[in-house]
Write a structure and sequence with these properties.
The strands form 3 sheets. This protein has a 6-stranded mixed β-sheet, with helices on both faces. Strands 1-2-3 form a 3-stranded antiparallel β-sheet. It starts with a helix and ends with a helix. Helices cover 36% and strands 22% of the residues. It is an alpha/beta fold and 363 residues long. The protein is elongated and about 90 Å long. The protein folds into 3 domains: 68 residues, no CATH class; 61 residues, no CATH class; 175 residues, von Willebrand factor, type A domain (Rossmann fold, 3-Layer(aba) Sandwich).
């Protein structure tokens, strides 16, 4: 129990350090590169390491006595000046994505998502709900079996506290019992779209990469099955893998409707809103080819996306080359929409506020 208690206490300390330095972890992309399956390696500073503490010099002990000059080793040679500050200990520890999501939810006070369409699909699940006197040996519950044996021994008067040997017999055995339940099958897909025209530089793409990581982390906490798709566009759109999504740069014009058309086709052919919870996110610096194309985008949002999806997120990443007009047009077209979320991301420091914009309604 001591080891388990120490491990729990250590995890609490690590969790506290992460919460204290949360903004740094959100805006620093280093840890995303250290993701392995459902774990992320995080460098955690300022956790004190164990030290030996010596008693007063007057106390005797091994190796103490009257030394003479010259008995010790000679002076060593060192380089550099002596410092007067202790070094900072850095510990790299593994944290699960679920723990990160919980910390994200606590820090931003995010409401849990209530998936839509719960009654439309269900899966059969096994839930271990009690103990039974019969069952397969693989489901034997040791603690419950021991308790039954102890109760029998005390009741029969054979229990000796000075020699507490308890030997369970067949009738003492207890096994995990289970029942089959029907649980809602909640599937979700996140479709990321990004403008990769020349005005979206490396810093803008890094902001999108960081924000999408935390959006994914929160949605995975709310949905057991989460799919992701990636679409890039300039004047034309295409579906790509995640690595290509964050590394591609183009120099052509920007036609946002090309991405929306491809996203619409993807939803219609692979992710029917009758079965899937759908989350499209579009990131751009706000330049579009023409007002006519913007009107086409607004029409698709009104007629198709907003009636079908859980939430449509538009994140405008500030660029010195972008006009930012597209966000203004969307704000004018959807001043009070419940599931059209517009967020402006001026720099890395605004990522946390943008995540709150997108996920704060629990959609």
């Amino acid at each position: 129990m001591g080891i388990l208690e120490d491990h729990r206490r250590f995890k609490d300390i690590v969790r506290g350090r992460i919460k204290h330095n949360f903004k740094k972890y959100v805006t620093n992309g280093e840890m995303i590169g250290k993701q392995e399956n459902d774990l992320v390696k995080i460098p955690v500073p300022s956790i004190d390491l164990p030290k030996f503490k010596y008693g007063p010099k007057q106390q005797g002990g091994v190796g103490q006595g009257q030394g003479q000059p010259g008995d010790g080793t000679g002076e060593g040679e060192g380089q550099g000046e002596a410092g007067n500050s202790p070094g900072q200990h850095m510990l790299e520890t593994e944290v699960s994505l679920e723990e990160l999501a919980d910390i994200l939810g606590e820090k931003l006070e995010l409401p849990r998502i209530e998936p839509k369409g719960l009654s439309q699909a269900a899966t059969e699940a096994i839930k271990y709900s009690g103990r039974a006197p019969v069952g397969p040996e693989g489901l034997r519950h040791f603690k419950s079996s021991y308790k039954e044996a102890l109760k029998r021994s005390i009741a029969s008067g054979t229990y000796n506290p000075d020699d507490p040997v308890i030997i369970p017999i067949r009738r003492d055995m207890r096994y995990k019992s289970f029942k089959k339940t029907m649980q809602p099958r909640t599937k979700a897909v996140v479709i990321y779209m990004m403008d990769v025209s020349g005005s979206m530089g490396d810093e803008q793409k890094e902001i999108v990469r960081l924000e999408s990581f935390w959006i994914n982390t929160w949605l995975k906490r709310n949905y057991k099955g989460l799919e992701t798709r990636f679409i890039i566009h300039d004047a034309a759109a295409k579906e790509v893998d995640e690595n290509t999504f964050f590394s591609t740069s183009e120099s052509g014009g920007t036609l946002i409707s090309s991405a929306y058309k491809l996203c619409k086709k993807l939803i219609e052919t692979e992710f029917s809103p009758a079965e899937w919870n759908v989350y499209p996110f579009h990131f751009s610096d706000g330049d579009n080819w023409s007002g006519e194309d913007t009107r086409l985008c607004v029409k698709m949002l009104t007629d198709f996306f907003l009636p079908q999806v859980n939430m449509f997120g538009y994140g405008q990443v500030e660029s010195k080359y972008g006009s930012g007009q597209f966000a203004k047009d969307l704000e004018k077209a959807f001043p009070e929409s419940d599931n059209m979320i517009i967020s402006k991301i001026e720099n890395r420091d605004k990522i946390i506020a943008s995540i709150k914009d997108f996920l704060g309604k629990g959609k």
